[in-house]
Design the sequence.
């Protein structure tokens, strides 16, 4: 088989999604499956839908279009605020977009009117992560603007946590977010249908015992795909952490003196360690590099150590084990490694247990989706 390649077990992704939707449902929380780490891979999207997510979300319009072209008809939201140049495609391919800027909102409204559509807006609120979002004191003005703009409907509010800060939200943060949803409803009139409380970083809170308040949705990527809590870096109970694997080919295998200090950056290593100069080690050079993945985010076969990577080579210390040229090595991936491998054009993607795209729709509008590329 072609290397380098990512092998994807879609059944495990479905099971992860099913497990999370099953646990969050009784807490009154629906799940939107976030496909950005897989660049809108249609098979992965369908696996999430089979596992019970109510819709999909991506941060890039190209990925949304990829899913639409594959026949995916479910609601898709754009979770990064649209660029000016994306507005027309966002109106065409997305049901909903997350926004925080007045000019973009007006632009979306004008384009939606031209197309004879109503586009749904979710307002992102700044809750302390300091990435994107409207300051809470400015929320009601922007919400009123959305309500007053023909072509737009205010669908709800959203919070982001742990995007820049890596700080998980507390019950207090979440209660504050619920109060903001109430306030928008009180002052701007329409029912706030969606209060999307955050991402995989919210799971510790959402699966805990604190009241969920107004929060009725989470947008989950990493937890479904990798089974990992992004804040703690720990596996989430009951989820598969090996739905994805990267395979690369050994192009050189030699016994070499190891005068080089081992790097501490691979997640399989707790601490850096040094190997004495006289020590001969087996080193395998793999035909995969920084262009293809985040090599420091690879999980190596046990007993092997990460020795370094350049743009096209990754060197693995295989200890006492000699591997042969032409053989394949299998790696697990963290989120950074996954996102880069999935977007690298030289990395083949191979799926296992794929289901056909159902082309079912919860959307009753006419479907103009297959218009381009
Ligand atoms: C990436 C992203 C998510 C999903 O984050 P995960 O940590 O992968 O669950 C949710 N919301 C927004 C706005 C995002 O950009």
Sequence:
């Amino acid at each position: 088989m072609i290397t380098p390649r990512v092998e994807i077990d879609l059944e495990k992704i479905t099971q992860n999604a099913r497990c999370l939707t099953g646990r969050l449902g009784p807490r009154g929380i629906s799940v939107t499956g976030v496909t950005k780490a897989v660049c809108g891979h249609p098979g992965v999207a369908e696996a999430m839908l089979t596992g019970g997510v109510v819709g999909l979300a991506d941060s890039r319009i190209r990925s949304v279009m990829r899913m639409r072209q594959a026949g995916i008809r479910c609601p898709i939201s754009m979770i990064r605020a649209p660029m000016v140049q994306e507005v027309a495609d966002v109106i065409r391919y997305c049901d909903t977009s997350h926004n925080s800027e007045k000019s973009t909102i007006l632009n979306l409204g004008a384009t939606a009117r031209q197309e004879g559509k109503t586009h749904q807006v979710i307002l992102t609120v700044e809750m302390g992560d300091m990435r994107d979002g409207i300051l809470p004191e400015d929320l009601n003005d922007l919400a009123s603007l959305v309500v007053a703009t023909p072509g737009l409907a205010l669908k709800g509010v959203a919070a982001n946590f742990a995007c820049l800060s890596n700080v998980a939200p507390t019950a207090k943060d979440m209660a504050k977010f619920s109060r903001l949803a109430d306030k928008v409803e009180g002052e701007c009139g329409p029912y706030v249908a969606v209060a999307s409380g955050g991402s995989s970083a919210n799971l510790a809170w959402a699966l805990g015992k604190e009241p969920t308040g107004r929060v009725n949705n989470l947008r989950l990527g990493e937890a479904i795909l990798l089974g990992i809590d992004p804040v703690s870096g720990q596996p989430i109970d009951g989820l598969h952490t090996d739905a994805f694997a990267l395979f690369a080919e050994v192009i050189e295998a030699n016994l070499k003196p190891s005068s080089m200090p081992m790097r501490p950056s691979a997640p399989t290593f707790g601490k850096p360690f040094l190997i004495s100069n006289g020590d001969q080690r087996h080193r395998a050079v793999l035909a995969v590099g920084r262009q293809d993945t985040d090599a420091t985010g690879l999980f190596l076969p046990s007993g092997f150590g990460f020795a370094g990577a350049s743009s096209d080579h990754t060197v693995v210390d295989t200890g006492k084990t000699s591997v042969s040229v032409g053989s394949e090595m299998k790696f697990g991936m963290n989120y950074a490694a996954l996102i880069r491998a999935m977007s690298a054009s030289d990395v083949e993607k191979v799926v296992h247990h794929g289901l056909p795209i159902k082309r079912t729709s919860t959307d009753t509008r006419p479907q103009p989706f297959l218009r381009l590329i």
